[in-house]
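ok so i was messing around last nite and threw this chain in just to see what happens. nothing serious, just curious
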Amino acid sequence: MEKMIFVNLPVADLKASTAFYEALGFENNPQFTDETAACMVWSEAIYVMLLTHDKWRTFTTRPIPPATSSEVALCVSCDNRETVDTMNEIAAKNGGTKDINSKQDHGFMYSRSFADPDGHVWEPMWMDPMAIPPCEDAK
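result:
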């Protein structure tokens, strides 16, 4: 079986969160979607499971952090710098918050960050592997 990642996120409003992720370009997989969860596909290997708070609590008794906290930043690669910018704008227009952290522009790598409606942090990024400066240790 191919290695895959399923990012599970608790969400306050499943319908609104599903619409938010669809606006960003994620596709809903109805096979794993019901009134308590929505499976959102980013790529063949990356899936985001949006779970209602009640569904989330069936997996853990740990508290759901408030939307103002950060436990993880989810970085996803984009085809170009324009897509990074577009994702941030789409996030802001669909209930998220753009540029929650400073924009990073290193020439060979570019990223911005946004929070979804529940405060989960995403960082779309673009990188040109051919333009990465050599590592100092490699000299």
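not much to say yet. The chain has two domains: 1-59, 70-139.
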